[in-house]
Amino acid sequence: MAEQENTPARVGKVVQQATAIFAGAEITAVLAEDGYVYGALPHLCRALGLDADGQRERIDEQPALAKGLWQFPLAQGRQLITTWCLRSDLVPYWLAVVSTRRMKSEKRSRIDIYQDQVGDVLGRLFGATPGPSTEVMLSSQNPVFAEGLAVARMALDQAQQALNRTDETSEEVKALKAAYDGRLSALEARLLPRAQISEEQAEHISDMVKQVAIAMAKKLGGGNFFGTVFGQLYRTFNVTSYKLLTQAQYPKAVEWLQKQIKTYES
What we know:
Layout: H1 2-6, E1 14-22, E2 25-32, E3 37-40, H2 41-48, H3 52-60, H4 63-66, E4 69-76, E5 79-87, H5 91-96, H6 105-124, H7 134-141, H8 143-165, H9 170-191, H10 199-220, H11 226-237, H12 250-265
Helix pairs in contact: 2-3, 6-11, 7-8, 8-9, 10-11, 10-12
C-alpha cells in the first residue's frame, strides 16, 4: 500500500470520449490531450475475464507499458469516474505478457483476437490515422534505398506494360514479371530486414490465416479457429500482430502458413 501511495499520480486530460462495441463487449476509450487514444483497462479486463487490479499491477511492473497507463475522468451517467486507461497501441504488448497457459482455448482465442484487433478499433473511434510508413521514412532518409527500390519498381512496371501490349509472348512476359516480383520482394527484404510488412503483404497474411482456419474447421468438424491460428502465428514469429511482421519474416510466415494449409487440407 505504501508503494502505491508513493507512486506519482498519472492523470490525463480527456479531449473526447467514446465507446466501442467489440466482440460483444463495450469498451470506453478517450482521446487524450497528448494525442493518443487510451482504452479503459477495467473494461478490457472484464471483456477478457481478467482481474483488473492484478493486471494494473502487472503493467506497472513493466516500464515500457507503465508509461502508457494513465488515469482519466470517464463520464458514466452523470458522474465522472477516475479510471485507469492503457494507451491503445500498447494493448497488444500488454496481452503478450498475460499468461495463457492455464486458460481454456476459448479464452485464449479471445485474447488473441483482442491482441490483434482491439487497438485499431479503439483508434478508429476518433478517426486516428497511421503515421508515415517505414518505407516512406527510409526513402526520405536513405537515397540508396529510394534509388534501388525505384529501379526495381520501374522494371516491374515495364514488365506489366509489356504484358498489356502483347498476346504473342504473354507467357514469356508473365515469367519476366514474376521474376521481377521476386527480385523486388528480395530487395525489400534486404534493404528493410526489420521494417514492417506493407498493407498488401499484411492482407495476404490475413487471407492465408483465414484459409488455415477454414481448413482446420473442415478437418476437425467445425469451430472457429481464427484466433487459434493468429495465436500460433504470433508465437512462432514472436510478434503481437501480423501487421508487425518484418520484411525478413514475411516469406517465412508465408511458407509456414502454406504448410499449415497443406496439413489440414490433406
